[in-house]
Amino acid sequence: MKGLGRIGLCENLVCKLGLMWDQQSGNVLNEVGLSDKDVMGGVGIFGEGCSHSAGLIAAQLAENGYTYVILDFGSHYRNVLYNVENARVLRLGSDFSLNPLYGEGMDAVEYIDLFVTAFSQGYELSVREERLLLESLMNVAESTEGGALTLNGFDGTLREFDESTNGAELRSKEEVMRITKPLFYYQGENKPFSSQQSMSVHKLFNGLTVIELEKFSSHRFRRFVQALMVLKYLAYLRGLRDKQLQTEPTIITIDSAEQLLQDRLNLPIEQRRQRFIYYLDELKERKTAIHMCSKFPSEVDPLAFGLLDTNIFHHMADEQSWRTVQTQLNLKMNERSQFIGLEPGQALMKTRWTQTTIPLII
Questions:
Q1: What is the pTM of this model?
Q2: CA spacing 20 to 30 A to 65: which of 6, 124, 153, 154?
Q3: What letter would DSSP give residue 125?
Q4: Cβ distance 325 to 309 under 8 Å?
């Protein structure tokens, strides 16, 4: 990647984005790239054509030795990466299965908190429902005395009733069974969940990998799987005894980020479920960067933008997303006309390091 230049930061460039240009004259000024610091600091790509740009970044970073995983909400990347050597597209339930209660080497009791966070993020549990699920799973985990947790074991525990079962306990169990019904619906042969998952998540997170989720009609289930795979990888990293065992830098791209990271700032503070974002921040400290892709940045939790050091904005399809871009880029009056005039293949980029808005041809 020699020969790339970029305003304010020109060392360790690992990815070419495109050409910087002057919108008034149309003149191309220089090539623009991302450094390792940019990449590992988090990158957000927003607007129409965001998946195409994300695919170009993914292909280059994989070629340069990064592990790059895309949690593909809507099957946006298969065609983008069709000709990329060694890229693989895997479908949950067809190419691999997961045991959602398996802690990836982490202590089972400690892992339960990550699992409940993922489930709550996907299914938008109330505070009460989240507490009931957490308490129920903790009881099961403690009863296994360090053994592996499975959905069958959890289901069996929920269905255990005896003479000592009081009315309050019975109602709690029934409510937990209702809350967790999707878990058991998706369990079985040729389904995404099984007692013995076919491959650990850290082995799935290898090279350039796209995890496709579109075959599942439930958006809540897709959100849950995205969150589950992210936090399973965090569990794996936490479970490593020797920090020297940590792998090469890893990048996880959350596709359709407006789904998993919905803007909840209009909700009461106890319902905003900010723990998931805190865990994403922890991943950054463990050599794992979070990238995001969304056509609708106005629907993304503003707190999630704090995870991103670099933002790339394409043309926006709606007025509210355009206003979000103005806020996130802190556009001046003369810069707003640049954004309004963006055409397909053009974008504006701004990094935390330079605070300069850069027009791009990607």
A1: 0.88
A2: 6
A3: -
A4: no
Residue 274 CA to residue 264 CA, distance in Å, equals 9
Query: What burial class does residue 231 get, using C-beta atoms within 10 Å of its C-beta: 0-12 exposed, 13-18 middle, 19+ buried?
Result: buried
CB atoms within 10 A of CB 249: 17
Amino acid identity, position 149: L
- Parallel/antiparallel/unpaired status of strands 13-21 and 88-91: unpaired
Q: Which helix (H) or strand (E) holds 89?
A: strand 88-91
Task: Report, as an integer, the average pLDDT of 284-294.
Answer: 93
β-strand partners of 289: 251
Residue 166 has which token pair? 């009081």
Which range of 138-142, 262-266, 294-298 scores highest in mean pLDDT? It is 294-298
pLDDT in tens, 91-126: 998 899 999 998 898 888 889 999 999 999 999 888
Alpha carbon 107 to chain centroid, angstroms? 23
For residue 71, give every residue at least 6 positions away whose Cβ sits within 8 Å of its Cβ, in sequence order, or none. Answer: 211, 213, 225, 226, 229, 230, 252, 253, 254, 255
Longest distance between any two alpha carbons in the chain, whole Å: 83
How many whole angstroms separate alpha carbon 28 and alpha carbon 31?
A: 8
Name the H helices within 86-207: 108-123, 127-143, 151-158, 167-179, 181-185, 201-204
Residue 169 φ/ψ, nearest 5 degrees = -65, -40
What angle is formed at CA 307 by the lines to CA 74 and CA 252, rounded to 5 degrees? Answer: 40
DSSP string, 299-359: GB-HHHHTT-SEEEE---SSHHHHHHHHHHHT--HHHHHHHHT--TTEEEEEETTT---EE
134 contacts: CB under 8 Å, gap ≥ 6: 112, 113, 116
Question: For residues 153 and 187, what is the distance between their CA atoms, to the nearest angstrom?
Answer: 13
Q: Output phi, psi for 334, to 5 deg.
A: -75, -20
Distance, in Å, from the CA atom of 315 to the CA atom of 298, rounded to the nearest integer, reads 13
- How does residue 7 score in pLDDT terms, banded at 50, 70 and 90? very low
